[in-house]
Design goal:
Layout: H1 3-10, H2 12-28, H3 37-43, H4 47-66, H5 76-94, H6 99-118, H7 126-142, H8 149-181
Helix pairs in contact: 1-2, 2-5, 2-7, 6-8, 7-8
Amino acid sequence: MTLAEKKRRQSIAEYVLFMWQMEDLVRAVHFDASRLEDFIRAYIPGPEVFEEEKLWFADLMQRMRLERIEKRGHLSDLHELVFEMNFLHGTLLTIIKDKTYSELHRQAQPFLAEYAERSDGKSNSEVESALVALYGLLLLRLRKEPVSTETEEAMKAFSAMLARLSYHYRKMKDSEKNVAMN
């Protein structure tokens, strides 16, 4: 099982962020698979997994080329996942009225509104806004740039909301599997 598959099973939000990072990594090495070998070796447990990860990256590169996102953008299946997450987000707030999720959303709401204002409405949803903000934090940390206390507070609220959303997403997908098996 590849690292991406593990992340997808653990947390859909972490998977989306991971995939965005891998898309950017592939762009940074100009789609040169050989330049990724040291990166892959740094996180794999053994040589048998190395080949599987190399194949995964080759597939990622091919998909990115097919979808013509060599310079920027995200794979269509990632857009679909964010759409599903946003649909679940709305369902949890308006139909299911999950108290825990609603409270986490309430805590994140002021930060989401501020982020939407600062980004001139570039994000299509609150879920996408939270994901984009967390990805931005990841980039700041990689560059070892300072992060304000207010930003840290916002990111904690986004993380908590997305963690709960990922929990519900996994439950939803597990239910779909159980229905399909019956």
